[in-house]
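Need C-alpha cells for this chain, all 159 residues.
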Amino acid sequence: MDKIDRKILGLLQRDATMPVAEIGRKVGLSTTPCWRRIQKMEEDGVIQRRVAVLDPVKVNVGVTVFVSVKTNEHNEAWMRKFSAVIDDFPEVVEFYRMSGDVDYLMRVVVPDIAAYDSFYKRLIGKIALTDVSSAFAMGQIKYTTALPLDFALVVDDDK
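Here are the C-alpha cells for all 159 residues:
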C-alpha cells in the first residue's frame, strides 16, 4: 500500500459510490490504473465490501443498547455455540469477546425498550449466561464507519 492507495481508501470510506474516474482525478491517476488499485485492494481483503450506511431512526431501529455478558463457560465449544446463537439475531450489529470484567460485549439496535425486552428473552432462552447487563445509549455523539488511515503501513514510494 502506498500513499495513493491510502487516499483512494479515504475517498471510498466517505462515499463508496464515487465513480472511479472521479477517484482517479482526486488522487492523480487515470481511470484504469485507479480501478486496478481498487480491484487489488479488494482481492487482498483490504476492502472487504462496499455498503450503504442507513439512518437507524428512518429504518425504525433508533434505540442502541450496549449489552455486557459474563459467563462461567470459558471453552472453545461454548464460545462457538454462543457465536452461532448471536448470528441468528439481526439486532446484534457488533459482537466482541472482551478482556477484563466483561466476557462479551454486543451493540444491539432495536425500535424501543419492548423490542429489546423481547430480544433479551429470546437470547436467554437459547443460551445460559451468568450475567447480562444492558446500557441504553441516551444519544449518539460520534459515529463513523471510516477507519483511521494514518496507521496504515505505507510503502515509501519515493525510492
